[in-house]
Amino acid sequence: MGWNKTKCMMDRQLFVSIVFIYNITNVYNKLHCMRRISAVLTQNCSISHFVDDCGNKGLLWNCSGSNISKLPTVLPPELENSNTALDISYNRFTSLTKDTFEAIAAYSKLENLNNLYLRYNLISKISEKDQRLFESLKNLSFHLEGNPISCACLNIQSLKWMKDHQNSFADLGKVLCVENNHHVGHLFNDEIWRKFELDCQSKDWLTFSIVLLFLTMLIFTSIAAIKRYRVHLEYVILRLKKQWKGIPLRKSEDEFLFDVYVSYSESDYLWIRDKRYPKLEDLNVISWMTDKNSTPGGWVLEGIVNRINECRKVMFVVSESFLDMEWSSYAVKTAITHAFYNQRQGFIVVLIKDGVALEKLPEELKNIWWCIEYFRWPDEEESNEVILKRLTKALKSD
Fold first, then answer.
1. What keyword terms does UniProt attach to this protein (predicted)?
2. Same domain, 143 and 50
3. What strands lie across the sheet with 258-263, from one edge to the other?
4. Which end of the chain has less neighbouring CB within 10 Å, N or C?
C-alpha cells in the first residue's frame, strides 16, 4: 500500500516536470521566433552616411520599401552614440501605433535620433493617441510627404494639432491634402485656416440642424401616434398584465353579470336613471349604472374593460352632449378595441337621441357601422314602447 502511494507521488512529480519543461520550451521558441523576425527585418534595413537639411552629418538607418507595418526591435550596434535618422518610407504604416513609438523609445542608445522619415505610407491623420506619442519624442523631426492626409472637416482636430506643431514637420510644404491636392502648409495660413474653420462650423451647424429637425419630427410623430393609438397601446398592456396574472379578459356567455353596459354623458344621466333604467328593468334587462355598480379608484381603461367584460352588450347613448365629451371618444375606442380583440363585433348597440345626424357620429363608430345595431329614440311618447321592445330584444340576444 505504501509503495503504491510513493509510486503515485513520483508519477505526479514527473507529470508536473514534463509540463514545466514544455512551457519553458514553448516560451523559448516564441522568443526565438520573434528574434528571427526582428533579425530578418533588420537585415532588410541598410545603414549609410547622410547629411541632413541643416548640414549635420550622421548615419541613416534605411528600412524604406521593406513592406513592413511594424518597426524592427533589434538595434544595430554601429548606430549607438551617433546622429541617427530612421527612414521607414514606402511601407504600409496607416498610423503610428503605440507599438511603433515604444519601439522607437526602446532605442535608448540612440540618444541623437533626430529624423523620422514616414514618406509615402498610408497615414491619413494624426489621431489623439498618436499626438500624445509624438509629443513624448523630443527634438525629433517628422517627414510625411506622400501620405494621403485628409483635410476634411471630420479631421479638423488632427489638422489643428499639426498646425500647432508645424515645427515638428519638416516637409509640410510637400504634403498634399487627398481631397484637393493642395499643400497642407497652405491650409495652415492664418487667413485660410480661419475660413476653413468657419466653413466646418457651418457644416457642423447644418448637420446639427438636420439632426435636430429629424428628432423633432420623430418626437411629434411619436406623440401623434401615441395619442391616436393610445387606447390600443393601453389595451395591449392590459392584456399582457392580465395574462401575466392568469386572468382571462373574455368571459363565457353564462358568466355575464349584466345585460348591458350603458355609456352616456353627464347631461343625460337623469334621463337614463329616471326614465330609461326603470323601463328596461321592467322588461327584465339588467343594466350597469355608474352610481349603482362602479368601484372607485383603479386604472381608467381597466375599469371600462372590466365593466364591458361583465356585460352581454354595450350601449352608447349618443346625444349632442355625448359628442362634445372627450371621454365618450375614449370609451368608444375602448369598447371597439375590446370587441375586436375578443371577436365580439356584434355586441355594440347605439341609441341616438336629440335628432343627432348619423354624419356627426364618432368616426370609430362609423368605421364599424356594418356590425352595429342602432336605434333612434323618437320624440313621440307613444312610439317609445315599440322602440323599447326592439331594444330589449337586441340587448338580450347573444
1. Membrane, Signal, Transmembrane, Transmembrane helix
2. yes
3. 287-288, 258-263, 311-318, 348-352, 373-376
4. N
In this model, does residue 32 exceed pLDDT 50? no
Give the position of cell 503610428. Answer: 96
* CB-based contact 390:375 (threshold 8 Å): yes
Residue 7 CA to residue 111 CA, distance in Å, equals 60
Domain count, the chain: 3
Q: Which amino acid is at 339?
A: A
Helix (H) or strand (E) holding 231: helix 230-245
Q: Does 311 reside within a domain?
A: yes
Q: What is the pLDDT of residues 375-392, one digit of tens each?
A: 888 876 656 778 888 888
Write the pLDDT tens digit of every residue in 108-124.
555 677 888 999 999 89
Nine cell digits for residue 365 = 363608430
Give a yes or no: residue 298 inside a domain.
yes
What is the C-alpha to C-alpha distance for residues 398 and 393, in angstroms, rounded to an integer?
Answer: 10
pLDDT at 143 over 70: yes
pLDDT of residue 138: 72
Residues 67 and 111 in one domain: yes
Q: Which three cell numbers stand for residue 112?
A: 541623437
